[in-house]
Structures are given as C-alpha cells and as structure tokens.
Amino acid sequence: MMADWNGYRRQLIETIGKIAQLSPYTVRGYSVLGAAGSKTKHLDPKMRELIALAVAVTLRCDGCITVHTDAAMKQGASQEEIAEALGVAVSVNAGAVLVYSARVMDAYAANEQGAAAVRK
Fold it and tell me: Using CA atoms in the order 63, 64, 70, 74, what is the torsion angle rounded to 10 degrees?
C-alpha cells in the first residue's frame, strides 16, 4: 500500500516532465488526448474525473488514481460520489467476469462436441 500519495503524485509529475524533455511529441500527444474530450462540454469536469477514477481502478494505475483523486476533489467531488463511481467500476468488472465466464462455458461445450465427433 502506498503511504505517501501526495509525494508519489509530485514525483510522478516530475518524472513525466523529464520524459517530456526527452520525447516531447509523445507527452504532447497524451496531453491533446486528455484535453480532447473536454472540448465538447457534454460532461462537466467533475463527471470526467469520476469516470477517470473508475477507469484508473479498472486499469490498476496508481499514478492515475493519485492524479485523478486530486483532480476530482478539486472539482468538488465528495467521498460519497467517488465511492459511487468506484462501485460502478466494481460492478462493470464483475459483469465482465460473468461475460468471460460464459465464454469459458461455450469453449467447454465446443470442446465437448469436438471430442464427441472424434469418438464417432
């Protein structure tokens, strides 16, 4: 478990700044992607940060978690709103496991049919 999320966020931003010096177009491209969605103004900044947190947890990205937690709080997201967004991530991930579980059962059935055809 990470003890100093604020220190980690500062370190991460500093290190990414060094990457930007070495590969400016890569980091500039990332920045353009990050800003692109906000141009339509269909979602407010707080909602975008709540979505980012749900995705960050799904991707298991500690850097994303610390950056977007800070940003969500700055956009006025409450702990309850963050928890609800994370609940959506939990639910969708559980749903994905169910979908892939169905794929396993389909693969099993296909293998069983293939084995039966070979035995004939």
Answer: 150
In contact, 9 and 70? CB cutoff 8 Å: yes
pLDDT at 117: 82
Query: Could you tell me the pLDDT band of residue 118, with boundaries at 50, 70 and 90?
Result: confident
What does CATH list as the number for 43-120?
1.20.1290.10
What's the CA gap between 47 and 35, in Å, rounded? Answer: 14
**What is the Cα 118 distance to its own chain's centre?**
44
HSE toward the beta carbon, residue 66, CA cutoff 13 A:
15
